[in-house]
Amino acid sequence: MRSEQTEPNTLDMRLAARLTGLRQQRGWSLDEMAEQSGVSRASLSRIERGETSPTAAVLGRLCKAFQLPMAVLFAQAEDRGADFVVHDDQTLWTDPQTGFHRRSLSPARPGYRGAMIFGDLPAGATVSYADTPIPDLEHHLWLQSGTLEVTLAGSAEGADGNVTHRLSAGDCLRFKLNSANSYHAPGPDPARYLLCVVTP
C-alpha cells in the first residue's frame, strides 16, 4: 500500500508541466505571466522547472490568471479519469508554506461540474487566496473536526468589508466565491474539513 504522503516531487513535476502548458497555450512569456498573476518571474521560472513547490497562495494567483478553478488544475495534473477513485489513488498535496494537506477525493472531471476535497489545516495556520479564479464559484464546506475561520472579502457585514464565519465541528458553510478569501485554524487542534466545489 502506498504511504499516506503522496510522492510530492512527482506531483510537483506534473503541476509544473501543466502550468507551463497553460502559459504556453496562451502565448504568454514568463514576464507576461508574472504581470497577469502578480507572481515574480523568478518564482515562476523555478516552479516551471520543478525546483520549488508552489504554495497554496501562489497557486491561487495562477488559477486566477488562467481563470481555472484549483480543483480543475489539480485534476489535469493528476491525469486520472476513473469515476471510482480508491483511497490510494486520491492525490495528496502539501502546501510547503503552511503544512496544509489537500486530498482530492473526487477530482474534477469532464462532464461533471463538482469536485470534492478533504482539507487538513494545522492549528495556527492560515491559507489565503487573493481572489477567485472564476466568478460565482460555488463552495459547500463541512467541518469534520477542530475549529475553522473562513473570511470572505467584500461583504458589508464587516467593518473592513469582510465577514468571518467561525465553524465548529459539524457546521456547514455554503457560499459563492467572488472575492479574496482565507481559511484559518485557530487551534488548539487542526481543522479537518470536506469541501465540495461546483463550477457555475
Automatic annotation (TrEMBL):
SUPFAM superfamilies in the record: lambda repressor-like DNA-binding domains, RmlC-like cupins
Domain HTH cro/C1-type: 22-73
Residue intervals passing through the bilayer: none
SMART domains hit by this protein: HTH_XRE
InterPro entries: Cro/C1-type_HTH, Lambda_DNA-bd_dom_sf, RmlC-like_jellyroll, RmlC_Cupin_sf, TransReg_Diox_bact_type
PROSITE patterns referenced in this protein's UniProt entry, alphabetically: HTH_CROC1
Domain of life: Bacteria
Keywords, sorted A to Z: DNA-binding
Annotated Pfam families: HTH_3
This protein's name: Helix-turn-helix transcriptional regulator
Organism: Roseibium polysiphoniae
